[in-house]
Every structure is written in C-alpha cells, then in structure tokens.
C-alpha cells in the first residue's frame, strides 16, 4: 500500500541547518563531575509528552537535591526534534548537555539528512513506553473498530492525523491501514491541541493520541476511542479493546528515554545513570507513570540502545513498504 503523506520534509532540513548554528558544545569536562550548571534541551514545544516528562524529571531531581547546580530547561522545537537534538549534537564532548527522547529521535534521521542518528549520542536509559488510542469524533457513526474498517475500506482514502511527519503516530496509522485494507492520507501536526481541533472540526476522520493527552476529551464525550495499542486494556477505559484483541498484535509504542551529547565523559554518563535510578524509585515518578498511563520499561545504557536498534530496523521496514523511504 502506498500512503499519501501530506507535507514534506523541507522543514526538517531547515531545522537541521539551523541547529548547526547553535553552541559548539562548550567546555569539555575534567575534574569532579558535576561542577557546572546543566543545559537541558526539550526537543519539542511546551505541553507535549516529551516536555511533560522532562519537567517531571527536573522537578524530582530538584526535590531530592540530586544535582548540585542549576538546571536550565529550554524548549528547542522544530523539524520533528531535529533542532533540539542537533543542538545537543553540537555539545559533543560535554557532560553538561542532556535531552529526553521520543519516537522522533529514531524516525527523523530515517527520513531526513539530520547529520546524526541515535548511535551518535551517549545513552543514559529508557524509562517508559507510551501507547496510543485510535480516536474518532464523539458524534461519529463509528461505535466499534469494525464500524471504522467498514467505512474506511469503502472510501478511496480516509484522512488521518498525528503528531510529527514520520513518527510513531504515522507508523501506527500505516500498520493499521495496511492490515485492514484501506488507504490513508496522513496529516502531521506539531502539537496535540491542533490535532484535536482538526478532528473535532471534521478536517480529519481519525487520529491516534497518547492516552494522557486525550483522556479528558474521551471522558467528556468529545471523542471516541475504538482501539488501545498497548498489550492490555486500560482500567480507566475497560471497554476499549486492544489492538491484539482485534487482530493487530505488536503495535509500536513511543519510547521515552534520556541521552547525553556524543562522547560525553564516562563520569557524566555514570552520574546520570545512577541519578535516574534514584528518580525512577520515587513515588513522584510512579505517580507520573500512572497518571499518564505509561508502561514502565527501564533499560540502561547499551541495553537502551540495543532496544532502539531493533526498533529502528522495524520502523525502516514499515516506512520503506509505505513508500516513505526509498
């Protein structure tokens, strides 16, 4: 199946070129670590999943006095993460830059010449994966997934949306459409609010959204979930079947982790691994996991990157089959 992707990758190419104009990484580290303030890059705009996770981490680190200096948080959004992670790339050799990751961390380099891949950075860890709900308007005629498939297969194509040009949202839509036998036109959005507005206005037939981002609208009856992509039903939405129950097993989830710049000092990597091991044991972290309906999935250093390597291989196959990659 060939999918029509509405929008190009020119904005990503521009973001990559602009990120090269950022800092050159600052000083290399020597002596005791940490001894400087920390520059924390959030590669997406305020209010999204990556932003919420980063700010939750920093709140916990501050609450438990786990970092002796100041932590400067800055949203450096653009190009499906290319701007922010390009900025971190230019901090090569420093232990005083850091960023959280999402699905775009591995999908953006597959579709644009970013000048980096996940392998260029210093891994800290994976902390959680974020599954999604397949959503239609609350007043639509589709009560079940079967209703949706009956409608979609009877159209030349249906218009669906998600966050990012070629991200986990796009891949989920592509997998579901390919297996169910319908064609999609995919429209990417930069933030959740825009996506929801487009769905409710009738510009989109369906979307996928992370549970924590859309649950309020589900409970208000504004939207209707037809499928949850995780392995088990959510307690809060017990009537919504999983993809596996509906015949769509092993659907991908958004990986949420942490990285340091390329060639960060070993002492910096060790410090952040040990610090994050403390963070994930706090009740505040567990509350974040529970309230955002994430699946805790903790892998450290090389195990984290081995997970990303397997995920990249799977995504590359899917995107090539969809005609997005040559």
UniProtKB/TrEMBL annotation:
The keyword tRNA processing does not apply. Pfam families: TctC. It comes from the Bacteria. Keywords: Signal. Residues 1-22 form the signal peptide. The keyword Cell membrane does not apply. Belongs to the UPF0065 (bug) family. PANTHER family: BLR4371 PROTEIN (PTHR42928:SF1), TRICARBOXYLATE-BINDING PROTEIN (PTHR42928). This is Putative tricarboxylic transport membrane protein. It comes from Ornithinicoccus hortensis.
């Amino acid at each position: 199946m060939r999918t029509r992707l509405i929008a190009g990758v020119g904005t990503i190419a521009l973001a990559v070129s602009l990120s090269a104009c950022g800092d050159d990484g600052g000083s290399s580290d020597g002596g005791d670590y940490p001894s400087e303030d920390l520059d924390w890059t959030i590669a997406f705009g305020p209010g999204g999943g990556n932003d919420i996770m980063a700010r939750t981490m920093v709140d916990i680190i501050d609450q438990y006095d786990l970092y002796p200096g100041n932590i400067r948080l800055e949203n450096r959004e653009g190009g499906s993460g290319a701007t922010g992670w390009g900025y971190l790339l230019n901090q090569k050799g420093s232990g005083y830059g850091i960023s959280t990751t999402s699905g775009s961390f591995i999908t953006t380099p597959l579709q644009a010449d970013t000048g980096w891949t996940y392998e260029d950075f210093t891994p800290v860890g994976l902390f959680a994966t974020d599954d999604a709900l397949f959503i239609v308007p609350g007043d639509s005629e589709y009560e079940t997934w079967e209703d949706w498939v009956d409608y979609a297969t009877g159209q030349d194509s249906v218009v669906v949306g998600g966050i990012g040009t070629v991200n986990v949202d796009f891949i989920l839509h592509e997998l579901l459409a390919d297996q169910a036998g319908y064609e999609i036109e995919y429209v990417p959005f930069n933030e959740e609010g825009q996506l929801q507005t487009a769905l409710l206005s009738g510009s989109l037939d369906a979307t996928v959204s992370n549970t924590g981002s859309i649950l309020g609208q589900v409970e208000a009856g504004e939207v209707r979930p037809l499928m949850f992509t995780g392995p088990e039903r959510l307690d809060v939405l017990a009537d919504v079947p999983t993809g596996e129950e509906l015949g769509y097993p092993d659907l991908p989830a958004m990986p949420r982790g942490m990285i340091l710049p390329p060639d960060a000092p070993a002492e910096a990597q060790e410090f952040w691994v040990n610090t994050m091991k403390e963070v994930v044991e706090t009740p505040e972290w567990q509350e974040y996991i529970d309230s955002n309906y994430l699946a805790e999935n903790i892998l450290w250093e090389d195990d984290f990157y081995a997970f990303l390597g397997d995920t990249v291989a799977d995504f590359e196959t899917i995107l090539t089959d969809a005609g997005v990659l040559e």
